[in-house]
Write a structure and sequence with these properties.
Layout lengths: L8 H10 L2 E6 L5 E12 L2 E6 L1 H4 L4 E8 L5 E5 L4 E6 L5 E10 L7 E5 L5 E6 L3 E2 L12 E12 L2 E18 L2 E5 L17 E4 L4 E9 L4 E6 L4 H10 L8
Parallel strand pairs: 2-10
Antiparallel strand pairs: 1-2, 1-4, 2-3, 3-7, 4-5, 6-7, 8-9, 11-12, 11-14, 12-13, 13-16, 14-15, 15-16
């Protein structure tokens, strides 16, 4: 795994921020009306967008925010239909899993930009595509972080937001198939994380281990669906494209 090396805290924080991809839901006039988060992973030679199903399951017109122009308008890539993962049991029941994915072409390269109040772009950095085999599980030794954009306000036709960043979370167990991570401080309330559903939870070696799905204020906990639960669905998608296990 290429990310699996010692990282400084600054490198880890930069990765946590740059690996989180803002999503926008557009209305019939192509104006943004809702937000979520995601990540793009390079898995067996194909780029997949991974996000939370509950945040995007309305099958709305979802798009990746790729860049902001100097006129304070936003360039978007329309994702198209997403695949929502379901899990079967030996008893014949089918349960939804809080995961969704879509293939993303290589030419889609989102940027993170710092935009001043007058619309001037102060700097821009490519967002990170996570190279992963989706096999890493969390443990109690490593630390974990995630980021997202929240508190959206209308300004013209855009939704401008504030970065939320959480670092130094600890893995405290798995409940009902979902990983639990304890925050390094008191939970600030759900509004602080509005728009963060779907963001990757990344360990201090740079490995994605889960996708943010919800939290608990009383337990100061963030829950994330394990990324390993994507593997069967993504392998099946690759097989349908003629890229079976022997195809690389």
């Amino acid at each position: 795994m290429s990310n699996n090396h010692h990282m400084t805290r600054e490198e880890w924080q930069d990765l946590v921020v740059l690996a989180s991809i803002p999503l926008r839901r557009l209305n019939l006039a192509n104006l943004p009306v809702a937000t979520a988060s995601a990540c793009i992973v390079a898995y067996r030679g194909i780029r997949f967008l991974l996000t939370a199903a509950h945040a995007t399951q309305d099958q709305g017109n979802w798009a990746i925010e790729t860049r902001v122009t100097d006129r304070l308008s936003t360039e978007l890539y329309l994702i198209g239909p997403m695949t929502f993962i379901r899990r079967g049991s030996l008893h014949g029941s089918i349960e939804p899993v809080d995961l969704a994915f879509a293939i993303v072409p290589e030419h889609v390269r989102p940027l993170m930009q710092r935009v001043l109040e007058n619309g001037t772009i102060e700097c821009e950095i490519p967002r990170v595509i996570l190279a992963t085999d989706l096999a890493v599980e969390p443990d109690t030794v490593r630390r974990y972080g995630f980021s997202g954009i929240n508190r959206f306000q209308e300004r013209g036709i855009d939704l401008l937001g504030q970065l939320t960043l959480e670092m130094d979370m600890r893995f405290v167990g798995t409940e009902n198939g979902v990983h639990a991570f304890e925050l390094a401080h008191e939970h600030p309330g759900h509004d602080a994380y509005r728009g963060c559903s779907g963001a990757p939870i990344i360990d201090d070696l740079g490995e994605p281990v889960a996708i943010v799905v919800h939290g608990c204020i009383q337990r100061r906990t963030i829950f994330g669906t394990p990324v390993a639960r994507y593997r069967v669905a993504l392998d099946a998608e690759l097989a349908s494209l003629g890229r079976g296990m022997g195809s690389g």
